[in-house]
Design a protein that fits this description.
Number of strands: 11
Order of helices and strands: HEEEEEEEEEEE
Helix content: 10-25%
Distance between the termini: 35 Å
Shape: globular
Length: 170
Amino acid sequence: MTMKLARMIAASTILVAAAMLCQDADASDWKFYSAGGCTPYTTGTPNYNLLRFRPESVQNQSTGYLYVICPIVRDSEDGWMAGAKRAEIVASFRTNTAGNFQCTLNYGSNATNLWTSTKSVSGNPGDLLEISWTADTYVFRAPASLVCRLPPKGSLVRYYVNEFDVTDKP
């Protein structure tokens, strides 16, 4: 074996070991989603053709409030749900005018009961705003979604889920 090959193998081994240590120390499993994957959510008959979907966001281009619904995807294995583990859900917004964003986190079903929590946040032009929830995983095994009300010229930029433990599978 050449000296160069031996150095490459040693460096690779160190990198793999460091990555494994970082994963255990972090004990989190973040999943980020583009709001461009959300869909219009109607509570009446508003003009949803004024929602501008982009790869990275969805923007309300109307003069009134419009709603979107976004799926919350998370791991199903029990590895991260054992014990007193929790999950955090965060929605991020940006506004071009002063506005109030409101989101409702829904999880559960007719079979498991439906749990909802509504929160809101206001900001000034250019602000990056966030709304967050933390849920115990014993009630977080059911289907979940996020319904957000966007003010005029406001954008849902992204939303993400943090499972507070490493998971069994990627």
